[in-house]
Amino acid sequence: MIDRLVAGRRQPxxxxxxxxxxxxxxxxxxxxxxxxxxxxxxGRHFRLDWSTPQQVGRKAIAQNAxxxxxxxxxxxxxxxxxxxxxxxxxxDAAALADGMxxxxxxxxxxxxxxxxxxxxxxxVSVTVLGDLAGRTAxxxxxxxxxxxxxxxxxxxxxxxxxRLWSDGVGAEEFAELRRRHLVPExxxxxxxxxxxxxxxxxxxxxxxxxxxLGHLAAASQVTLQVSTAALAADHRALAPAATAVGxxxxxxxxxxxxxxxxxxxxxxxxxxxxxxxxxVREGPARVLVDGAVWDGEAGWQxxxxxxxxR
Length: 310
Fold this sequence. Notes:
- By secondary structure, the protein is an alpha+beta fold.
- 32% of the residues lie in helices and 24% in strands.
- It has 9 helices and 13 strands.
- It has a 7-stranded mixed β-sheet. Strands 3-6-4-5 form a 4-stranded mixed β-sheet, with helices on one face. Strands 1-2 form a two-stranded antiparallel sheet.
- Strand 12 and strand 13 form a beta hairpin.
- It is globular and about 55 Å long.
- It starts with a helix and ends in a 17-residue tail after the last strand.
- The mean pLDDT is 94.
């Protein structure tokens, strides 16, 4: 099965030795490697009656790549652990791997190894390596008063798609939003753009804009002010779907995660591909929306037993 999953794959130049031995060998010209890991568990992070195996594979790679992008680096290699029940078909396992490769190749990266085990349900665990290419890593802790908050990518699409799937609404009218829940679209390449433009701090929007800005505010010990007027385009894009299911589109824009957009603080001009959404101010570590504390859902909580599928 492993031979079938790895056969015929073309590795990037950074892979000196790919799958087939006890470990892979990956070059890193910078001399430093970024490392991050994330997991997807069936029934908690995806459903196989909604997602195809290929879509699960693409999502697993995308969400890990976004963490490397958020440091100002480029993903170069992925290592994958896959657990599944014994009755899982070889075709489904191959489709999962195909999805991973489709997404990895968009980045110029490779899947260099991993593990395959039996489990009670599908579990996909991905570790990603990244290359800073001589840059200084962009941390969450560098935001300074006077900087401009900006976003690369779109917000609220995955949360809208989740609600549409859950309510069984919009299979045709809102097909694109439903798809965006299954396969996120991080703004690949914009992490390095932000770093080159002097970004002081950056993170990806995995849990929700307010929640992830909260992490950045706490790390930087600043107040972050967000303007809903600057997020009006996201709200307009989601308003018809929100009306269809009786939801508040702002809850998706501000509290929905898994879009894996990037949000950063810039001391000067915001680079192309980014849009200003607020300011960094002196004050306690907090996030304000139009000058007030947001009283809606702030974002995903991993160990909230009442939380819906994410």
